[in-house]
Amino acid sequence: MKNIIGVLREGLSKKGEKRAAVTPEYAKQIVEWGYKLIVQPAAHPETGEIKRTFNDEEYKNAGAEISEDLAPADVIFGLKEIDVDKILPNKTYLFFSHTHKGQPKNKAMLQTLIKNNSTVIDYELIRNDKSIRLITAFTYNAGYAGIVDSLWTLGKRLKIKGVSNPFESLHQAIAEEHLSKAKESFKLASREIESNGTPEDLPPIIVCILGKGKTAEGAREMFDILPHEDINIEQLKEIYQNGSRKKLYALHIDIEKIYRLKRDSEFSGEEYNKLDVKDKWQMYFDHPEFFETNLDIVLPYTTVLMNCIIWSSKYPRTTTKSLMKWIYKDYKTLQVIGDITCDPNGSIEFSKETWIDDPVYIYNPETEMITDGFEGEGIAVMAVTNLPCEFSADASIQFGGNLEPFYNNIVSADYKKSFDDSELAPEIKRAVIMWKGEFTEEFKYMREYIEE
C-alpha cells in the first residue's frame, strides 16, 4: 500500500515563515505518481495568519486534498522545527531539525520525537558520498536577502543621521517579495551611485564580506550588481583615504585572512606563512586555539560588515565586545553589521536573534547596551534568523529543485521495514537522524543531548 503524503503548515512561532517544502509543481508530480497528498491550509486556524507563500487553490489544482488533519499521512514534509504539540505518533518527518549540534532549544522536540516513535530526515544532512550538502537553496537565499537588508539598513540609518545616500531607495527584502524585484532596486541604486556617488560625509564605502561559502556567494551575486572594485587588506587604508565615491569597494576574505596566528602559539609565524591556503585552513580547524581575529586591522576602515561564516564556540570570535569598544573609540566608520549566519553571542559576540518584523537593533560599543530599532548611538546590526523567508516563493522553488532528484525515493520508501531495508537512496540515508524513535548509528552521539 502506497504511503500517504502530508505537507505541514509552519507554526506561529516562526515569524514571517511562508516557505514550503513541496511547491504546487512538485505536489502535482507526487499526485501523478499515484500518491494521496494532504496539504494543511495556508491560513492558521487560530489567527488566520497566512503561513505559506502558495495558496490552497494551487494545491487543489495539483490534485491535493486540503485538510487540517495530517493524521492519515505516513510521510510529512515540514520545513523548520515542529512545535512539540503538533508531533504525531509513528510518522516520518522531513524538516530542518537543528538538533545534530546539540542545540539546547530543540531538546524538548527531540525528546518528543523519540517518544512518538518518529523517523526524522533532516534536509541539512542530505549529502553525497563526499559529505557535500545537496540542499543549499536556502543558504543562497540567506545571502541574497542578507545583503539586501543590510544595505537597506545602511540607507535608513544614514537618513536618520541626516545623510542623504543612494541606499534610501532600497526596501527590505520581504517588501520586494521576489528576487527579480530586489535586483531591479539594486540596479536603480547602482545608477544613483554612478551618477551622484556615495555621501561626501562618509569615507569611501568599503563592504567587508566574511567567508566564501554559498551564503557569501548569494550576497556577492546581489552586491555585484552595484558598481564596485575588489580590494585586499593591504589596500584598505589607501582606499579609506583616497578612494572613489562613484563605486563601492569589496573586501571579500576567508579564514586565512579573517584570522591570524597568535604570537604565542606553538607554531611559528614563519612556518605558518610558508603554508598554502588549504594547509592554513586545516591548521585552523585542527588547532583553533592557535588563532585570533584579524579584524582589528579591517574594521577601522569598513562601513558594512557582512558575516557569512559558520561558527562554533571552539573557534575564536571575529568581532568581540572589547575589540569593538576600542575601535569605536577612535573610528566611527562601521555603520552596519549584517550577521547573516546569526549565531547569538557567537562570532559577533553582541549578536542576537532578530525577526523580519523587527530586524535591526543598535549596539553601543562604549556602553555595551542594545536598543531595538534604527535609532541610537552605535552600530546597526541586522541579524534576521530566517532571512530566506523574505523571498519565500523564490526560495521554495529553488529548494524544490534541490530536492527534486529525491522526491520519488522519499515518498516511495518503506518506512515500516528496517532502516537498512527501507530502499532509501544513500544521500537520504545519510540524513536520517532517527528511525522509529531510535537514533541511527551515525547519530547515536545525540543521546547525550536528550539526557543532559
Characterize this entry briefly.
With 452 residues, the protein is α/β, with parallel strands linked by helices. The chain has helices at residues 24-32, 56-61, 107-115, 137-160, 173-176, 179-196, 214-223, 236-242, 255-258, 269-274, 277-286, 321-330, 392-403, 407-412, 426-429, 447-451; strands spanning 5-7, 37-39, 65-66, 75-77, 92-95, 119-122, 206-210, 228-231, 248-253, 259-261, 291-293, 304-307, 336-339, 360-364, 369-372, 379-382, 432-435, 438-439. It has 16 helices and 18 strands.
Molecular shape = globular
Percent helix, as a range, is 25-40%
Q: What would CATH call the class of the largest domain?
A: Alpha Beta
CA radius of gyration is 23 Å
Describe the structure.
The chain is of the alpha/beta class and 452 residues long. It folds into two domains: 5-126 and 392-451, 3-Layer(aba) Sandwich (Rossmann fold); 139-385, Rossmann fold, CATH 3.40.50. It is 32% helix and 15% strand. It is built from 16 helices and 18 strands. It has an eight-stranded mixed β-sheet with strand order 3-2-1-4-5-6-17-18. An eight-stranded mixed β-sheet has the order 8-9-7-12-13-16-14-15, with helices on both faces. Helix 4 (137-160) packs across helix 7. The mean pLDDT is 94.
